[in-house]
Amino acid sequence: MSLLEVSSLGISFGGLRAVDEFNLNIEKGELYGLIGPNGAGKTTVFNMLTGIYKPTDGKIFLDGKDITGKKTADINKAGIARTFQNIRLFGDQSVLDNVKIGLHNSFEYGTGTGILRLPKYFSVEKEMDKKALEILSVFGLDKEADVLASNLPYGKQRQLEIARALATNPSLLLLDEPAAGMNPNETKDLMNTIALIRKEFGVTILLIEHDMKLVSGICEKLTVLNFGRVLSQGETSTVLNDPEVIKAYLGE
Amino acid sequence: MKNLNKSTQKLLTTIGIIIVLYLVVTIMEATGNLSSLMGGLMVPVCAFSLVAVGLNLCVGYLGELSLGHAGFMCVGAFTSAFFSKVFMNTIPDVPRFILAFIIGTAMAALFGFLIAIPVLRLSGDYLAIVTLAFGEIIKNVINTLYVGIDGNGIHLSIKDMLSLGMEPGGQVIVNGAQGVTGTPRQSTFLISVILLIVVLILTYNFVHSRTGRAVQAIRDNQIAAETVGLPITKYKLIAFTLSAAIAGLGGVLFAHNISSLQATTNTFGYNMSIMILVYVVLGGIGNFRGSVIATAVLYLLPELLRGMQNYRMLIYSVVLIVLMLFNWAPGILKWREKHGFTAAAVTQKFGKKKKEVQ
């Protein structure tokens, strides 16, 4: 059974059909790429998968469970975490706290315990710190744990966003243009990071990307979107050599 | 944990400042250097500081502007005054006062919770306007409320005293626009200062807890907060309710300091809500210490300037502008950073060098 199964997903904004008849199957452990020209509807697909938009048609199954139209927070609890094209960190909080917020649902103590600082507060916070630092160290961010998130350099902010998403312990990670705005060196680092987190966290990844080097370098399968419709789908090498794709996206 | 340590230091310095000021005022009072008028303002200063701290929790950490906090203060004040008067002769002073605090705070929290349910569906300006309306509703309802108690129990009316239909031996507790008179005056400066310190510690704990982090995450970026699985509504409700409860606590303190409690525009209405917001904004949004200092300065200033009758309001407005510039003007902020006049730098210079707490 596939980890993610999307069948004939569609959404309309008024008269505009942004995404239509979108089908997608991702197996456990795959690294899947979603590409397409600007405005093709890639981020809209992500927003539907995470419940930020409610799809008008179609169904989404995660691990066999129907998550169509559920609340964003519940979809995260079901196992989908994501990053954003325009980075959305909790800027006024430290790097460590950003990850601890990601750990929010994995550790528990009540509001009263926190206000009165009962013994449980100290033991749980200690565990959270430990776990958060563990995740940060995978990204080499543990030395910057006390820095305000908004003060991090751009590349590290992107990595922190991935770290925060992984802290929610997802089975499927959605990365929205992780290499946007990065120079070739940073992109190379990012490719290593993605390979590393697949190994460390055993997570399935679906990513949107424009950087063809990154896409052809790490993605096993691809779906190409154009004008809200699937243009081509399959193994990376086959898709990238599809004449339709070359015409629509890479240029003739 | 350097960051955490810095904020712990800041809390300890704040408490230190409050204790030193308390001692100075007490000594001045004992040696007769403090006018009785000024002495009488000490409890209200603490009460309004509490309300400002409560509002700062809402504005600074929840990130929502509330203009109805005088209303929550009003609920705390009136419910506790009502309770204290009803049980004036049946419960001994100390437990009654403690119960009054619990009841006043709980009622303000309840009102905060009920009002938050519809209000938190809105945000920004809309939320401010609706909280303003709720604050006014609370004040106006209490203004027309008549409550009496006699052998048959509690009587309620929103018309006049006669329609209560009281038995001869009955007692009118809340008398419409005249409010509650004869509440026991139990709030002392010492109790107020202790309460203020306790609330500062508890709000600090809240902000640095799992729930507090979630509340700030929602403030910083609601969509991101949702995608990491935070239940938005729950945490907004918790923060708003807590904020209202602290305002209610301030109300209880205030009510037990004056013999005649009335819900006028100046004490609990729109004017007061704006005034408290001024304390919060000038003290620095998200800065609890600033709220306390701004409240103390701005509340006492008109009294301190009594000698200069004609120029009083002029100086007051200049102080407002100076405080605003000091806290917000980009040029001055840069200058402060350069010359070590930021809160962090001052704390480092004068604060106790405390070892890591956790």
Describe this structure in words.
The complex is a heterodimer of chains A (252) and B (358). Chain A contains 10 helices and 10 strands. Chain A has helices at 42-49, 72-78, 95-102, 111-116, 119-138, 154-167, 184-201, 212-218, 236-240, 243-250, and strands at residues 4-13, 16-26, 31-35, 57-62, 65-66, 80-82, 172-176, 204-208, 221-226, 229-235. Chain A has a 6-stranded mixed beta sheet with strand order 6-7-8-3-9-10, with helices on both faces. A 4-stranded antiparallel beta sheet of chain A has the order 2-1-4-5, covered by helices on one side. Chain A starts with a strand and ends with a helix. Chain B has 2 domains: 40-304, ABC transporter involved in vitamin B12 uptake, BtuC, CATH 1.10.3470; 314-358, no CATH class. Helix content of chain B is 70%, strand content 5%. Chain B has 16 helices and 5 strands. Chain B has helices at 2-30, 36-40, 42-62, 69-86, 93-119, 124-143, 189-207, 210-220, 222-227, 232-255, 265-268, 270-283, 288-304, 312-328, 330-338, 343-350, and strands at residues 146-150, 153-157, 171-175, 180-181, 260-261. Chain B has a 3-stranded antiparallel beta sheet with strand order 2-1-3, with helices on one face. A two-stranded antiparallel ribbon of chain B has the order 4-5. The model of chain B is unreliable at 350-358 (pLDDT under 50). The A-B interface holds A 50-52, 71-74, 76-77, 81-82, 84, 88-94, 97, 100-102, 104-105, 107-109, 111, 113-117, 121-122, 124-126, 128, 146, 164-165, 167-168 and B 1-3, 202, 205-206, 208-214, 216-217, 219-221, 223-232, 238, 358. Chain A: GO terms for molecular function: ATP binding; ATP hydrolysis activity; L-isoleucine transmembrane transporter activity; L-phenylalanine transmembrane transporter activity; L-valine transmembrane transporter activity. Chain A: This is ABC transporter ATP-binding protein. Chain A: It holds the Pfam family ABC_tran. Chain A: It comes from Pseudobutyrivibrio ruminis.
